Amino acid sequence: MTTSFVQKRSALMIAAAIAVLAGAGWTMSHHAAMAAPSPQAAQGAPIAVTTTTVQQRDVPLYLTGVGTVTANASVTVKVRVDGQLDKIAFTEGQDVKKGQLLAQIDPRALQAQLEQVQAQKAKDQAQLLNAKLDLQRYTTLRTQDAATQQQLDTQKALVAQLEATVKTDQAQVDYATVQLSYTTIKAPISGRTGARLVDAGNIVHAADATGLVVINQIDPITVLFTLPEDAVHTINKVLLDRHKPLKVIAYKRDTNEALATGDLILVNNQIDTTTGSVQLKGRFTNEKHKLWPGQYVNVNLQMDEHALALTVPSAAIQRGPDGTYVYIVNADTSVAITPVKVTRIQDGIAIISDGVQDGQRVVLDGQYKLKPGSHVVENKAAAAKGSAK
Asked: Which percentage of the chain shows pLDDT scores above 70?
């Protein structure tokens, strides 16, 4: 072969190779272009969520705690002298008035002691009377020099001695009278009696630990409850500003039914360092006995009548390492994490003091599927279900 023929053949082979490579490159770039998502496709389909709006509303301001109903006063009635219990004069579980007869102890032994000391007093009074008459005689005789000064002084001392004896006798009479009065047992307070702890016929002693009956005053009645120590400053400030008791509302634990409204009567004078809480007490009228000692209740301490505040349903509030936040829905349907400061949560409503504005849309349900920048769409099924309720 000539040199020119070889050169032409080589040129043809190179051109063919270049054409093959160019065709393969176009095919790959075409497939790559087809496979590459559009900017809208790269973002993914919008995520269905339920949203709500931040609302500014007039809400009552109160603190919430859990409390225990306690008797306004509770007395275990005990005997103060030993003896046989003659009778029980009350009915278990019934109301009694202060001063009402509850029980009677056999009084005969103490009655005899009283009569004994009364007789001793009468004897000493008679001796004192005679000594005073003798003193008058000695005084007259001394003026007539018929008696010595020593005799007069001795008689004066005898009179003073007998006067002291009579005073001692009177003290013994008073003591015996009090002891005798203890055989009649009366109600120390008005209230509701409990179970009878001793039956008539038993020998009772002042040292007995059980007593006869427990009386609980249940109208009015009190509720003991606790709040975090941070609330103490706020409560004291409101009390100083208002110059009147704060209202306390007691609710049933299961149905949240309001049972009674009363007044705050105690903020304990120290914080429990073990729990970081302070104990408070509210007092309620209880004519219908809706509150009962030992009952657990929810308690709202009314801090102010009403105030305007930004609110969202509590389900919208999320919690992370840096605190509480919500997902804000922007105008382009994208979401962003916004930190918020939650003042408190009451009745399923979160009251927010900072982080959002009135009318902003926030995600209420479906947050677990979101990340910043995600686009969302309203979950129509959930919205329809919520509207049907």
From this structure: 86
